[in-house]
Amino acid sequence: MDQYVQKVNQAVSYIKKQFGSTDFKPEAALVLGSGLDKIADLIEPIATIPYKDIPNFPITTVAGHEGLLIIGYLEGVPIIGLKGRKHYYEVANENNGMEQVIFPVHVVASLGCKLYIATNAAGGLNPRFSIGDLMIIRSHLDIFMQNPLLGPHHDFGNNFFFQPQNELYDRKISELFRSDNQDIHEGVYACLTGRTYESAADSTALRVLGVDAVGMSTVPEIIIAANRGMKTLGISTITNVIAADGTNATNHEEVVAILNSRETKAKLLFAYQAFFQKLNQSLKAKPKPKRR
Ligand code: HPA
Predict the structure, then answer these.
(1) pLDDT along the chain (292 residues), means of 10
(2) Are residues 196 and 89 in contact, defined by beta-carbon separation less than 8 angstroms?
(3) Nearest one of 167, 213, 163, 157 to 188, comparing CA atoms
(4) How remote is the CA of residue 179 from the centroid of ligand 1, in Å?
(5) Distance, CA of 158 to CA of 160 (rounded, Å)
(6) Using CA of residue 51, residue 57, residue 60, residue 64, what is the dihedral sign?
(7) Is 154 among the residues known to form the active site?
(8) Phi and psi for 2 in degrees, rounded to 5?
(9) How many angstroms does the Cα of residue 71 sit away from the middle of ligand 1?
(10) Of residues 4, 65, 198, 272, which has the active-site annotation?
């Protein structure tokens, strides 16, 4: 068997053991980006596992990314919470660095998650956006990054070789997130490698390309989540607004400080709690497949 697939399977077996005697079947994976770890407080855990204890799992190295897997229920929805992610900029020079970025996505897919939810912090390019706003990702621009499907094809049994991208960012689930909250934006997210923030010319060019928010993550994960047959949802929290002349004056400390502010935290917790309540209702409303 493909060595990469084997490594994913080892991680999956280890995590499944922590489910213990429960009949836990995860429905969704929720990846919490920079400073977004407070959302994990909404999860009623049945187990928590540091990434370092999971065989082959990439260790996070950035402040605000604790590296903790939380298995539990959020408003009744069985989920795998991932407190922290690996970014491409952490591993770009390593052999198969991108494979580390997408490793957790394969793991949650193999654990049976049907929905992949990526959260991130992003800079606002759209002049209507304010600090602390939320943006549902409608589509993304992936032309600045290494495509995560480059290189050897890892065959998980039912994943695409050539992949259409029409089903990214599930409409119904995005609508569920927005509901009647008109303060939540929708837009296009672009992923750049970082670790630089954008130059004035970068930001001006991104605006011409129709980008509403810019960050350093999420896109490779979403591509792989779709590759493994999961539905996807992407939510950006706008932590800084990029000036009309393209100046981006932010830094990591500011990004984390905004996410830790009482106002943003309250807004995030409210939005995610409401979303998971609705998700739970919609899952319950679905007819269960008949047993044979
Ligand atoms: N650019 C890129 N990544 C980011 C930004 C930004 O302005 N803000 C938060 N993450």
Answers:
(1) 94 92 90 84 94 94 82 96 92 88 97 96 97 97 92 90 89 93 93 95 97 97 96 96 93 90 92 95 78 57
(2) no
(3) 213
(4) 26
(5) 7
(6) negative
(7) no
(8) -45, 130
(9) 29
(10) 65
Residue 64's pLDDT is 67
CB 106 within 8 A of CB 224: yes
* Whether residue 181 lies in the annotated active site: no
Q: Which atom of ligand 1 is nearest to the CA of 216?
A: 3
Domains of the chain as residue ranges with CATH:
3-149+160-278 (3.40.50.1580)
Catalytic one of 47, 252, 261, 274: 252
Give the residue whose CA is nearest to atom 7 of ligand 1: 123
Q: Is 89 a catalytic residue?
A: yes
Going by C-alpha positions, the residue among 95, 79, 97 that lies closest to residue 29 is 79
Predicted pLDDT of residue 74: 96
Say how many Å lie between the CA of residue 34 and the centre of ligand 1. Answer: 10
